[in-house]
Amino acid sequence: EVQLVESGGGLVQPGGSLRLSCAASGFTFDDYAMSWVRQAPGKGLEWVSGIRWNGGRTYYAESMKGRFTISRDNAKNTLYLQMNSLKSEDTAVYYCAKDLIATMSNGMDYWGKGTLVAVSS
Q: What mean pLDDT is predicted for residues 10-23?
């Protein structure tokens, strides 16, 4: 059974940082690209960032470039998202998602339950 479990969310002040983690199990982690997707209160899903199977290439939504860093540790079956210079508009539930293929296809077939990030003073 595929499982994706996010952690690391919480309340942070504007300008602060958080590191999200996603523990993966039930599939061969390093066979697939992975992504982070978020959903702000009252809004739709927004893709945040993606990473190829071996971490060799990463992708970001425009508003996250320079602030967020995606990475993965295939030995630990874990995906990460380092978020710096957080803004109130980054408040959302953050989900990790498994891609359909090793490179980025923008198609995802499994999702975690999410972790809440709240940016507020």
A: 98
